[in-house]
Specification:
Layout (H helix, E strand, L loop, with lengths): L1 H5 L4 E4 L9 H18 L2 E4 L11 H7 L9 E5 L5 H13 L4 E4 L26 H11 L5 E6 L5 H13 L4 E6 L5 H9 L5 E6 L4 H8 L12 H11 L4 E5 L7 H4 L2 H11 L1
Parallel strand pairs: 1-2, 1-8, 2-3, 3-4, 4-5, 5-6, 6-7, 7-8
């Protein structure tokens, strides 16, 4: 992660097709186009894992079946706790074979259609259910030195609870952090950076104009004027406010926004240098 921050490499979220898609061929073509564009840009493609509890194809499965080139250091796989033990091990082995080193380990969103890891699956004896903490410990123990393990930080959760959870994640093997989406800045993210100055952090930028979706997710209005919310201007402000952080782009509009973000990081840096 620190290499990405130092070299101004965006993390670009890409969702694989849902398994029940009624237009699977078109979705596969769209995924391939997005993946290749991220690779060609020299950015890091971050592939989600059953996002929002929807059963979808897995990231390594897509890369292998579509014969895509996962460039070294430029693919991050999300991995959550809603898998069978066999599927978990298969995913980890595929990542190892594909030389995908970065994993974002999260508890994930479940649904009735998804299996769930049990404590026995990951060798946990002191918990009733598996969270990202137990999954982190399992990966760090079974694949020592193979993966760079990242975790999520939610500034919208009760602060004391979220920081206590972060301590457990770091103790379990996490080495970088990606926040939930923030708009311009957030005081709890500021505290995170102050508390862990040596841990690489990427702030998530909400790239959809529909800021209402984020407000619904966190339970309150996150933008003063949702109607005039401008994702690219917000991204510029995140660069200005968090110059030592990486940036993770969620819900990026590839048709209209992608060209606008090219060179944006450098542009903001040049503004700071010349001002």
């Amino acid at each position: 992660m620190q290499h990405h921050i130092d070299n101004r490499i965006y993390h670009v979220e890409v969702l694989p097709p849902k398994q029940d898609s009624e237009k699977l061929e078109a979705d596969l073509e769209r995924f391939t186009s997005k993946f290749n564009r991220v690779m060609d840009s020299g950015y890091c493609c971050c592939i989600t894992d059953n996002a929002m509890g929807n059963l979808a194809f897995q990231g390594t499965e897509m890369i292998e079946e579509l014969e895509l080139e996962a460039k070294p250091g430029l693919v991050m796989i999300h991995l959550n706790t809603f898998h069978t033990k066999d599927d978990l091990d298969r995913i980890l082995e595929s990542c190892k074979e594909l030389k995908i080193e970065q994993l974002l380990v999260i508890s994930g969103d479940g649904s009735d259609r998804l299996p769930k890891l049990t404590p026995a699956d990951v060798g946990a004896t002191d918990v009733e259910s598996v969270t990202s903490v137990e999954l982190l410990r399992y990966i760090a123990r079974e694949y020592p030195g193979v993966f760079e393990l990242g975790v999520a930080f939610n500034p919208y959760e009760p602060e004391e609870h979220e920081f206590a959870k972060m301590e457990r994640k770091l103790d379990a093997g996490a080495s970088f952090i990606i926040t939930q989406p923030v708009i311009n800045s957030h005081p709890v993210v500021d505290k995170l950076l102050e508390k862990y100055p040596d841990i690489p952090v990427a702030v998530e930028a909400w790239m959809s104009k529909n800021i209402g979706l984020l407000s619904e997710a966190v339970g309150y209005e996150v933008a003063e004027d949702p109607e005039s919310f401008n994702p690219v201007e917000t991204l510029k402000n995140l660069h200005r406010n968090y110059p030592r952080c990486g940036v993770y782009l969620s819900l990026l509009g590839f048709k209209k926004q992608y060209d606008r973000i090219t060179g944006l990081w450098e542009q903001v840096q040049n503004e700071k240098v010349t001002s």
